[in-house]
Amino acid sequence: MKQTYEVRNVKCDGCANTLKTKLKEDFGEVEVNLEVEPRQITLDIEDSNVPALRKALISLGYPMNDEDLSTIEGFTTTAKSFVSCAIGKMDT
Known about the structure:
Blueprint: E1 2-6, H1 13-27, E2 30-33, E3 40-44, H2 50-60, H3 71-90
Antiparallel strand pairs: 1-3, 2-3
């Protein structure tokens, strides 16, 4: 079923490219909406796979907006998102 999630730290096409390419193998096609704030991703996903999606997003530095992160986790995901963004820009 298609579902939409709000995600943090997504700022540009580089971030969107990383999300699309890194999540594709495990979750299929991912749409990234850069026109709204907070940013949104939409994908066809079963509820049973959402915990794996959450984990994948955190590992890339783009946690879901409803994640309850500690201060250190918040800083860590932000730092990861800068690296993921740079990689996404180089891969385009």
